[in-house]
Amino acid sequence: SSLFVYPTKIIIKTCGTTQLLKSIDPMIHFAHHLGLTLCSCRYTRGSFIFPKSQPFPHSSFKDEVTYLEDTIPSNLCYRKASIMPSKSSSHSWHVFTANDGSHNHSHMPYDNDIFTIEICMTELDPILARKFFRRDGDGKTGDSAGKEMTELTGINEINPNALICDFAFDPCGYSMNGMDGDWYSTIHVTPEDGFSYASFECVGSINDDIVHALRKVVQIFRPGTMSISTTWNEYNNEMLTKMAKAVEPLGLKCRSCVMDQFPAEANVVFQTFTARRK
Amino acid sequence: MAVSGFEGFEKRLELHFFGDDPETFPLGLRKIDFESIQQVLEAVQCTVVSAVGNSYFDAYVLSE
């Protein structure tokens, strides 16, 4: 799990049975003491592997939306909740957004040429996933074992300019945050066979070499199934084609692509891919 | 429930704030002390395991 704190923005991403939405109230409270007021909220997630294990308010998307509606201030009146489907009924993208409509968000969440991509991968290649297990008695700390995994797997080559903060859990699992100027990236890995999962998220611009990053990520995990959710102000079909073409030579085929529009001019595109071997 | 109790797919929340007090900036939310950050994370049921920052933002790796 990861938390990023900017002067006027926080991003918090948690897995397991965490109760993420319960962070909203205390965050609003602490921000208020600094003279800051909430003006935009965006909540996203994929479909849970074990939905029945999730505690309230994450027991269903309906419960999450109800909780969000009740928790965020009324000035965030432009609201929308959407479940974006894929060809697989077990793999959907859940999005809730709200904003106050009176602030210019164009410089806040997404400049026109800046996008956020959230990648979810399952059925990781078991040989590659093994690299995210600690060795018995390795004598390392979570930090030093994490650093070793970052180098061993090639994660440090996704963005060679990034400052990486990494951590290896015991007996397995891995998280890293990357910092490149004001741009973040993050990876989380659950390598256990049967429910293996990895995510990659970053902010980038259309001018960036997103093709390189995508290819590296696919090569590091070799997922059986992958989804890419892209959020930005201006729909860019060329960009989507570029992303699909980046991963196709690595054996992934685009199976579905849906788009939805949200307040504050945010477009979300949800693409799913599966390995050709399937 | 997974054998390990682990759920891979994350939940992600992004909150944006605005303020009119120029004294709050440029640090803004980065002025929230670590104890308060821990309080927020307690509500979520996470803890900080590693942290780093640069001149633009702070990044925390969390448990779970």
Question: What is this structure, in a nutshell?
Answer:
Chain A is an alpha+beta fold.
Can you describe what's shown?
- The complex is a heterodimer of chains A (278) and B (64).
- Chain A contains 6 helices and 13 strands.
- Chain A has 278 residues and is of the alpha+beta class.
- An 8-stranded antiparallel β-sheet of chain A has the order 7-8-9-10-6-11-13-12.
- Chain A is globular and about 50 Å long.
- Chain B has 64 residues and is of the alpha+beta class.
- Helix content of chain B is 17%, strand content 31%.
- Chains A and B meet through strand 1, strand 2, helix 1, strand 3 and strand 6 of A and strand 1, helix 1, strand 2 and strand 3 of B.
How many runs of DSSP E, i.e. beta strands of chain B? 3
Strand content of chain A: 35-45%
Rough outline of chain B: elongated
How does the major sheet of chain A shape up? 8 strands, antiparallel
Query: How many DSSP-defined strands of chain A?
Result: 13
Structural class of chain A: alpha+beta
Largest beta sheet: strand ordering of chain A: 7-8-9-10-6-11-13-12
Summed over residues and divided by their number, the pLDDT of chain A gives a mean of: 93
Structural class of chain B: alpha+beta
What is the number of helices of chain A? 6
Which strand order do you get reading across the main beta sheet of chain B? 2-3
Stretches of chain B where pLDDT is under 50 for at least 5 consecutive residues are none
Oligomer: heterodimer
What's the helix-strand series of chain A?
Answer: EEHEHEEEHHEEEEHEHEE
Distance between the termini of chain B: 15 Å
Give the largest interface: A-B, 82 and 55 residues
Query: Portion of residues in helices of chain A?
Result: 10-25%
CA-based gyration radius of chain A: 19 Å
Strand content of chain B: 25-35%
Tertiary shape of chain A: globular
* Major beta sheet summary of chain B: 2 strands, antiparallel
